[in-house]
Amino acid sequence: MMRRRVRAALVALSTALTVLVTASTTACGPVSGSRVLTVFAAASLTDVFPALANRFEKTHEDVDVRLHFAGSAQLAQQIAEGAPADVFASADAETMARLERDGLLDGPATPFATNTLTIAVPQGNPAGVTDFADLVDPDLTVVVCAPSVPCGAATRRIERLTGVTLRPASEEADVRSVLTKVEAGEADAGLVYVTDVAVAVAAGTVERIRFPEAAEVVNTYPVGIPVDAAHKDLARRFRDLVLSDEGQRILREAGFGVPS
After folding, report:
1. Which residue of 105, 113, 136, 207 shows the fewest CB atoms closer than 10 Å?
2. Closest alpha carbon to 91 in 235, 217, 183
């Protein structure tokens, strides 16, 4: 039987309208009468949530899981404006808490993973970056996430912790955009999650520069179910998979930490 597996999309917020841009698709064709489970997930989950979606589809053959990836703040705004999401996985607790305070979640969200920042540099590290303090060099082109998104908020916390104030060339809407600029050689360094840089290091497109202060700034990822979810029963099952031993194993293998 032919069926669509996973559609991964980037969701961008414009001033006038919502745009869902398909990032990658693995599809053979939908099953007639199949149910669609729509999962909004932080951009830093792009490399791991497809594995969870595929696992879910294997045990729910009549379900087509559609994954939409973007910055957590963008996705939360989309949900607040009525976008059809059954599950929301954020890269920080505060973004999810805002939805909960506004009565937009069906019950409390549950932490499922943690992540920390690291420095990504182009292959060969041509600028010779060795630690966080190096990023203030005015001759370097440094990119970071915007303060409104979790990776940007974490960057600000590291700045306060270290007393180092960055002057980035650009502030991106999500962590994948930061990584893309470093991979393309458009930046000498960028602050990204360790999980994102691990995939790029394995692909040989960037190098990772560790710095000790990063371990003190930890983002906790919660998963929640929007109050207007169309398939709440399926959403709870997907959430349960994320929290299960199998789901946690998949996340650990991708480099995510265990929530406290």
Report:
1. 136
2. 217
